[in-house]
Amino acid sequence: MSQRRVLYVGRRIQLAIDSIALADGGCVEREVVVHPGAVAIIPLVDADHVCLVRNRRHTVGQTLLELPAGTRESGEDPDVTAARELAEETGYRAGRLRRLIEFFVSPGVLTERMFLYVAEGLTPGGQSLDAGEELRPEIVPWQSALDMVEAGVIQDAKSIVGLLYWDRLRRR
To answer: Contact at 8 Å (CB) between 105 and 58?
Structure first.
């Protein structure tokens, strides 16, 4: 049995303390970041090219090369989030958008569940960035994206997971 005490409510997250009853009668507290979940999209421009985004990440003080991604709105179906975020961040609309897997980003402290998609049959269009977003789409040869993962150039976990997972699937 556990009880959650919310300490802070932000625009996208909540910070909480969970009090957890132990089998021996004791109690421990865990810090939790409550997150509505997010999506990451593998936009396949063609069989040999993927669209990544250069994304200025204030939290780490770097511009990272990533898969396009975004946070779900409250109650929003992840499929809707994926289509919206793909269009906003890259300008592309997908003819086919397929959910591949779901995974927890950092389950030791964060409730965020990430939904990974592949987008095919892309039609170009204009970006529609949120205020403060600094994103630049970049078309990358597939093998170069994999090489960048191996070389540590791509450092974002969702992008590493997504690229390596899709590469495994496409080789089958």
So the answer is: no
